[in-house]
Amino acid sequence: MNADHPNYSLSTSTTEIVQPAEPISNPLPRAVLRMNNYLLLDGEWRFALDLEDVGIAQNWALGYSYEQTAQWPGSVEEHMAEAKGFSGPSLWNDKVVAWYEREFTLPARDEKETGSMLQITFGACGYETRVWLNGIQLSTIEGEEVHYGEYTSFTYELPEELLKPTNRLTVRIADTMDAETPRGKQESHVYKRGGIWYQTYTGAVRSVWLEMVERNRLRSRVGVVSIVEDQLVRFNLTMRIHDAGAYTVRIRVFERSAPASSAPIATSDFPLQLPVGQSRQRVVLEVPGAQLWSPDAPNLYRLDASLIDANGYEAKIEAHFGLRKIEARGRFVYLNNEPTYLDGILYQPGTATFEETQRHMYAMKELGCNLVRVHIAGVDPRIYNLADELGLLLWVEVPSPHSSTARSRANHRAELLRMVELIETHPSVVIWSLYNEDWGAQDIATNKETRQYIVDMYHYMQIKYPQFLVVDNDGWHHISWEGRLKSDLLTAHLYTPDLNRWKELLDRLTHGEMEGTAAFPLVVGDPFFYRRQVPLLVSEWGGFGFPDYGGPQDAESRANNIRAFKQELRQRDIAGDVYTQATNIEDERNGLLDFHTGELSVPAGLLNSRQIPNPEKPTA
């Protein structure tokens, strides 16, 4: 079976468990490495549409005659089209249920793996996923029989008593046009495809793999909080324990490129008494003399974290991290206690492959950006690693629902918590948006429950994840409570092709005029008096080349407009800006780089208003 897929795999899959070669690469869509054996299950799966949603009632998981095949990963829309004989993605139905199935051979274990177990991880799949092993339904490590969400990974441990020499894996995926689920800019009942709303792309969208893991281990997620003044790094670790008892967590920090035999620059042990189940623990390590991470100097270190049992058995994970501090102080954003102007660009990955997304990241760096706003979408987690290496600040957003209800808020919160738990390792991630332009919070100006939910999540993020800045609702309708803005940044979306109108809008913004500046009032709730107490960001502007915005059509005129508009931004008390956007996406034809090749259509360095030389793009 050929399981190689250019979207998510850096190596060709095999039907045997493989041992990663040295130096360790990262062929799996996750940010944390585990030094173990794995089997990538990508490739051809049996496939069937369940148009009447009868598969569960008819026990398809116990045995079903599949007439089609489909390549995993890939969207349900593509697989629907193939099943119906179409050449392009199929139109979305109100509700789609699809079943996938394949076999895998039980791998042999060596002596070192006698205390290990098998688990299966889905890089991303959804929105609603159920999994069966040999006809028996599985539950995720978190105890879910049905996993909800489509932007983050989830894992099943495989019970020994269910395993056979050859095993059958069955997956049911269901999704709808429900506006209460997190969708980002994919179409729904509320927002139909066209203009800024894109075709639905869901289902089996990221790799799935089988791997051998220790019964008692650290999970593949690490949170990093650094306070640069004291050279202390706080690591948030998650333990998965099947055998309660005494354990030791050992933390070792190395120079990133240091050979495996080198001595750590910092190390410490932390004894713990751990119960059965899953638990989180913060440990703190001093890293004296550590260099800070920034876009100009993306200094990274290697973390080796081990869980050691009473017999001395060591279960280890590896991650890269950097020390940095981000703050909003008065009019400026401070990175490592230095005011830093954010030269940003809006990035919508759409259906880009992993390799295309890599090219996009290099191209955005070449444009002179130090910030990329990943617009209400999920990306392959390895992209965060790439941003760490390149020195690109990332602004991450929760894919929004399209209606404002108690259920949509519950779904939004669940998606946020899933995303942030898996992204808190990276120094590149500095800003989170809860909502964008009221999508999924359309009643923010009139509904106190909607505002209260956003305020509660803002406070939650402040307390639990102090390493990030948080924006409540990007673009306008920021929330004021007793005159205090519940957002670390005051952001505005300003679109005009006219330079004089642009100057007028920027003057209104910097003078603190909350109404008549953006499309809607900048603040809702209680009165808010700007007085330069929070950084101002123009977090969307431009659109030059998109006919509906009236922008220029040729690249030279567009570049000249960008220079003129950027000059006006820098002449005012504005902390950063985000040009819209990096690539063309469906009907939005306003990109500055080619979607497939990453080639720029405007001069390199165009968006760099900091006048810092741009590093050369790596050749490999």
TrEMBL record:
Domain Glycoside hydrolase family 2 immunoglobulin-like beta-sandwich: 228-324
Key words of the record: Glycosidase, Hydrolase
Gene3D superfamilies, per database record: Galactose-binding domain-like (2.60.120.260), Glycosidases (3.20.20.80), Immunoglobulins (2.60.40.10)
Domain of life (superkingdom): Bacteria
Keyword Cytoplasm recorded: no
Pfam families registered for this protein in UniProt: BetaGal_ABD2 (PF13364), Glyco_hydro_2 (PF00703), Glyco_hydro_2_C (PF02836)
One GO term (biological process): carbohydrate metabolic process
Glycoside hydrolase family 2 catalytic domain mapped to chain residues: 358-461
Record has Heme as a keyword: no
TM spans (from-to): none
Domain Beta-galactosidase jelly roll: 94-175
GO molecular function: hydrolase activity, hydrolyzing O-glycosyl compounds
Family from the record: Belongs to the glycosyl hydrolase 2 family.
Protein name: Glycosyl hydrolases family 2, TIM barrel domain
Organism of this sequence: Hymenobacter gelipurpurascens
